[in-house]
Write a structure and sequence with these properties.
723 residues, alpha+beta, 5-stranded mixed β-sheet, 5-stranded antiparallel β-sheet, 19 helices, 29% helix
Length: 723
């Protein structure tokens, strides 16, 4: 049984990326460490990504006019990167290098097709003429002559393996509609050529292979909507120059009258393959989708529609699929279980453990699945007396204590319980702080609460959720639906706390919070209880009961002022700053926006969302950022007072990001023209000011030097003129 799990966007793609057979990436290769991948675009840039963080760790580009023609790979032995641009120019560099024009360079005598890097065998270079060299041998004499062994054939695919401590290279070629396969053992100077049995009116679209027990299993995706298998033994005693490999049908890509027009595929295990392509049904428009097939039982296990289109490429590393979807590179996790007939029809026993992945997606777990996942993750043993099945379900919840059942079983028993019993039992579970996997338990409790909110729209335990988020060290990944439901319910206080405490909020959710905060009126926010500690010291506020003058001091504010602030109802009337600028939003909205400003994000992933921000909201947000920037500049240390206010760097980063995303809109709006002009003048004045300070740096250093040379026992009067 196979299933597609959580998906996320790794990065946006440049103009050369995107949909279509000519789009996408040149390749995606594993990086030097686990969870690292190397992306090479169809231009001159290679980027190293850490997948779990969705952040780039390094980026290298060739000079303008140069094109990377061979995907960048990592030499796992030396942790260096290898690339080829303009077919013949080899480059090798380390992670600390920045400029590719200054790294090691070698011009080769023949065009390179691909470099394959093996963890224990080093890099292997395959030339377009079929010649093969290890990197070490090639670097000894870069201009050495490379033999041409494939004459008029064109290489379509290649792969490398390690078998019995020696590298084995296999590549497929095409000529006049016929397909050939070459197998080469580098250390033994062994090369053998095979011709693939041909199917009339069809051609090979994609290849993949794996090696086991001295036998290479070559799989071929054909244009007649089928996958064929060829077996190639490595132990060859025949002297024939060319053998014809018989084929056998592995899988027919059709189900219930629909046919999958595959473009590329990967092997997941001995019984599962994933195919990317277009699913065509008679009388309907074809839809691009990602599918997983069981080759043992000839069944389609699962599929995922891709409405934005793909480039037809797919890669698979560490139980994750990588493929382009629209203008982004998407990552989809998957899991496979032992292939059996029971699993294929969905009746596998709960006690059977998956043999490939223990991934748990909290976002998709139902009540019954919570039981299975927690039985596999927690070591809470059932007591003998708790294993009895009671006749009456009504008394189950009241009689069975949380410590006698696994958390998953308890939540299943509470499915139909009343609200009071449900919440009381969950509080008892949370009170056991020393239990194993406590954070996972809390995440499951929140998931159970959110699931009940979904099934019963009138139910929303606001105070309970607030208590959990404020008192526990949670993250977005432990309860991914929490902020989505909070946005639907307009629970602004909970969203504020989540933004302040969750370290892994996706940029899409951060943008949704920003848009929601900007769209809500200040009058509505006056009725909401929020944490105003980040704004109370620099947003001047007038009170209803008595007027209090806000005294801003360098390290915060006085105890008396803090007490008056929290005991007095706040109104939205604001006073101007020293230069006439007033805060464009009320203190409640300012506190919410500050939570967004302080949250973690990646510019690459946030920028596309900010481009969709409505114009009026973008102008309001820009005004608030400008107000904060002016406030920061009023103080010598450019730090806002109060508890956890945004820093000047965070304010400047958001200013630049917002202007990058909305600049074409801003220049067209009359109400934004004056604001942009003021911002420009203010920044220009600051640049001049710091430039003048920089000019007197030498004079100040000279004064300091003279001061050290003075005799402390003498008295003198000196007149210094600064020019």
């Amino acid at each position: 049984m196979a299933a597609l799990c959580e998906s996320f966007t790794l990065c946006g793609l440049g103009p050369s990326g995107g949909v279509g057979l000519d789009g996408g990436l040149l390749a995606l290769e594993p990086g030097p460490d686990r969870d690292h991948v190397l992306l090479t675009d169809r231009g001159r840039t290679a980027t190293l990504f850490k997948v779990s963080d969705q952040k780039p760790l390094g980026c290298w580009s060739a000079k303008h006019g140069q094109i990377i023609t061979c995907p960048v790979v990592c030499n796992f032995e030396t942790r260096e990167y290898i690339a080829v641009h303009d077919d013949k120019v080899l480059r090798i560099w380390k992670n600390t290098d920045v400029n590719l024009d200054k790294v090691f360079k070698a011009t080769l005598s023949a065009d390179v097709y691909r470099i394959h890097s093996l963890p224990k065998g080093g890099p292997v270079v395959l030339f377009k003429g079929g010649g093969v060299r290890t990197l070490d041998v090639l670097l000894e004499a870069p201009q050495q002559e490379i033999e041409n062994i494939i004459s008029d054939e064109v290489i379509k695919w290649s792969e490398a393996f390690m078998e019995h401590q020696q590298p084995v290279l296999i590549f497929a070629t095409e000529k006049n509609g016929d397909s050939f396969v070459y197998v080469q053992k580098l250390k033994m100077n062994y090369l053998h050529k095979y011709k693939l049995e041909r199917q009339e009116l069809s051609k090979a679209l994609s290849f993949t292979a794996y090696i086991k027990n001295q036998i290479i299993t070559l799989l071929c995706l054909s244009s007649n909507d089928s996958v064929y298998k060829f077996l190639i033994p490595l132990q060859q005693n025949t002297e024939e120059e060319e053998q014809i490999l018989p084929r056998s049908l592995l899988l027919n890509l059709s189900v219930s009258g629909s046919v999958l027009k595959g473009t590329s595929f990967v092997v997941l295990d001995k019984d599962h393959i994933a195919v990317l392509g277009s699913l065509a049904t008679a009388g309907e428009e074809s839809k691009e989708c990602l599918t997983i097939w069981n080759t043992k039982f000839q069944t389609l296990q699962t599929s995922k529609e891709l409405p934005l289109g793909t480039s037809g490429q797919i890669w698979c590393y560490e139980k994750k699929f990588f493929f382009t979807h629209g203008k982004v590179l998407t990552v989809v996790m998957y899991k496979c279980e032992t292939s059996s007939l029971a699993a294929a029809v969905g009746k596998l026993k709960d006690s059977q453990a998956p043999d490939v992945s223990s991934f748990v997606d909290w976002n998709t777990l139902g009540d019954e699945e919570l039981v299975i996942s927690f039985q596999s993750q927690q070591s809470v043993a059932l007591k003998p007396e708790s294993r009895m099945t009671l006749r009456s379900k009504k008394n189950t919840v009241a009689k069975v204590q949380p410590d006698t059942l696994s958390v998953g079983q308890l939540l299943l028993n509470l499915k139909d319980a009343s609200t009071t019993v449900f919440e009381n039992e969950l509080r008892q579970v949370m009170s056991k702080g020393q239990m194993p996997d406590f954070q996972a338990t809390i995440g499951c409790v929140v998931t159970a609460l959110i699931n009940r909110c979904k099934t019963n729209p009138k139910y929303y335990p606001r105070n309970f959720l607030l208590q959990i988020v404020q008192n526990q060290d949670l993250s977005y990944s432990l309860c991914p639906d929490l902020m989505v439901v909070a946005l639907e319910k307009k629970d602004l206080h909970l969203l504020q706390i989540c933004l302040q405490r969750f370290p892994d909020i996706p940029e899409e959710i951060t943008y949704a919070c920003l848009k929601a905060f900007l769209s809500i009126s200040d009058a509505y926010l006056q009725r909401i209880d929020l944490n105003l500690e980040s704004v109370i010291c620099y947003v001047d506020i007038e009170f209803n009961d008595k007027e209090v003058k806000t005294e801003i001091v360098e390290n915060g504010f006085s105890t008396e002022l803090e007490q008056d602030i929290w005991e007095t109802k706040i109104t939205k009337k604001l006073h101007g700053t020293s230069d006439g600028e007033s805060c464009p939003v009320g203190p409640q909205k300012a506190a919410l926006l500050n939570a967004v400003l302080r949250s973690a994000y990646s510019e690459t992933f946030l920028l596309p969302h900010l481009k969709n921000l409505p114009a009026q909201q973008a102008v309001l947000f820009l005004r608030y950022l400008y107000y904060l920037y002016v406030k920061c500049s009023e103080k010598i240390n450019t730090t806002l007072p109060g508890t956890c206010p945004p820093t000047v760097n965070q304010i400047m980063d958001w200013l630049c990001l917002l202007l990058d995303a909305q600049f074409s809109v801003m220049v067209m709006l009359p109400e934004a023209k004056e604001l942009l002009s003021k911002l420009h003048k203010f920044v220009r004045a600051q640049v001049r000011f710091y430039s003048e300070l920089n000019k007197i740096e030498g004079s100040l250093q000279e004064l300091q030097r003279l001061n050290h040379q003075k005799d402390p026992h003498t008295y003198s009067v000196e007149v210094l003129e600064l020019i």
